[in-house]
């Protein structure tokens, strides 16, 4: 089977995976202990309103008989396929779930983009640099740094970094005698809170948006950065000591060609799953980081929806996450297919 | 076997060998010890000749090859001796590229008097034995006589790098031009210059064809890389040349195969592709580091046949490393036997198999399967190759040697002639015609001269 057939097969296989994931989500939401009506109406609910709500949610028929679970399941899945994700009952009563997600998504995408970028642009080059100079001071420095970044839990780092930045003016005055305020640096921004991402085309607002996102993005990308650094270093070391690199040297190739052509591409192969697995860290981490930095993104929305029992919203978000992760998996397969010609199903 | 003819008018001795390895020493420096992986070995390879290097694992065969190629990485380093590559085209090419690092021996001859140089060196405390390469060891040698009798020539002084000590040549110079054939001193070449020597000039194929090709590029891509670098062909021309080379190493359907990846090739095919890649560099010398060890016997025979064919077609010199005496018998003209970093026996292949002199060689030959069909067990040499981690003042093979005697612990055996001129062995049992104490004395005095060379 050719590489591209392999890739197509991976794409097609993504559909049942999403289907299965959403079936689990359905079970957790509908068969779980949480009563969505109680979550929306509180303890002293009006029976009539509660009844209407249950009918609207498709939990009971108008005559008061419960809708069988399999019928609920079919409704739930049909709604997902047609993207009618319903409306929220708790967080923002009456608003469409889809609209809410679309409104909050840009901030999270912005955060995710920068955290991935920082990790990629710092972690991989640093790892490759260290790998090309093994057992030298720069290598030890970078490797130690990688372990430190990897070891700092992001909830802890988020709190420490935000509090340091908030009180940066006082701290620097005490330590070096010059008050340096992070908030006033370059452009005035808040450390905690959400900045506007409107008109990013304007350089000033672009800089403001980037400056605002950097601290949370560093926190979110820190672990991945450390991972990529360490795996990158190992991958380069392994590749550079391989027989084909020696053959390339014996051919008389220059060091630059050897590093960029022969080492680089092979060293990327073990990095692909490391990079893509960041996506999972990203979703879990964004919930934490957005909460600590009070960013109004999807992560915080998920946290609130789950905490307050807004099951329709939680279901919709999990659907979006499931699809996102499948896309990441497909991108990972695409990268594999592009980088490594050996990829395929029927390998001996 | 040389392609060069000596001009009778020439005063200097010329190396007619393509590659001359002299007192090559490569050590690995670890925290614990210094491992003398290659410990002062000398041999020559002529054009069109196959020189086999045999020995057990750990005897220093591969390190020798990598030292010649300049592929020794830290913590290893070539610490002494010289590797002289004597190919006119390569010398001219490198001399053009590195004019500042080129020594012109003719120029030196006109500018400096050899006798004066010798006198200066003697004054600097260089021993006469070292200066004359053991030919004269009296302390009262006459510089003028040495120069007049051509015992020491300018070429000798350059080859042994004495001219560096006199300050008339640069330490960094590595290209030597001379009227009849200069050479490239590989041990003095910079990494940059070595790269221009590698591939073109000297090419190498490695033991494991499964890992010698980069898995993420097509076979054609990797061959074309060498073609572009060493033959200057581009695009379609390079592609055609790659196909031609694959055909030359008997890969069927080369047009299709050229665009396939290494994993789509079988083991034998991959080794053929690696050979094609080496040939794409247009080398004069091909170093084969156990190229058939990872292959099964039928494929091994095919590859050996292919190598011999290629050698005939291109007048290629081959340095063939293996631990398989059977393979050596088949392919080699000259054989060097290595043990623990040292060359213990050197002979034409026929002489070595008919009359092995060194007990180690005898042991190796005895342990070829099928030599003693009447015995139930295969004969072996007891014990392992020791790690050569100190300057040898004894025979490194003595602990395993069936013929060892007391002197083996205290006298280091040097290579001495045994039988015909081209056959030498480093064993205290030789020269056979001398009584033991005289033989020992000869080894001692040779060691004293050689020892002076060792840094």
Automatic annotation (TrEMBL), chain A:
One of its GO terms (biological process) is transmembrane transport. It comes from Halocatena pleomorpha. The keyword rRNA processing does not apply. It is a multi-pass membrane protein. PROSITE patterns: ABC_TM1. One of its GO terms (cellular component) is plasma membrane. SUPFAM superfamilies: MetI-like (SSF161098). It comes from the Archaea. This is ABC transporter permease.
TrEMBL record, chain B:
SMART domains: AAA (SM00382). The keyword Ion transport applies. One of its GO terms (biological process) is peptide transport. One of its GO terms (cellular component) is plasma membrane. Its EC number is 7.2.2.11. It is an enzyme of class 7 (translocase). It catalyses: Ni(2+)(out) + ATP + H2O = Ni(2+)(in) + ADP + phosphate + H(+). It comes from the Archaea. Keywords: ATP-binding, Cell membrane, Ion transport, Membrane, Nucleotide-binding, Translocase, Transport. It is a peripheral membrane protein. It is found in: Cell membrane. InterPro entries: AAA+_ATPase, ABC_Ni/Peptide_Import, ABC_transporter-like_ATP-bd, ABC_transporter-like_CS, Oligopep_ABC_C, P-loop_NTPase. Its main location: membrane. It holds the Pfam family oligo_HPY. GO terms for molecular function: ABC-type nickel transporter activity; ATP binding; ATP hydrolysis activity. Residues 19-365 form the ABC transporter domain. PANTHER family: NICKEL ABC TRANSPORTER, ATP-BINDING PROTEIN, OLIGOPEPTIDE TRANSPORT ATP-BINDING PROTEIN APPD. The complex is composed of two ATP-binding proteins (NikD and NikE), two transmembrane proteins (NikB and NikC) and a solute-binding protein (NikA). This is Nickel import system ATP-binding protein NikD. It comes from Halocatena pleomorpha.
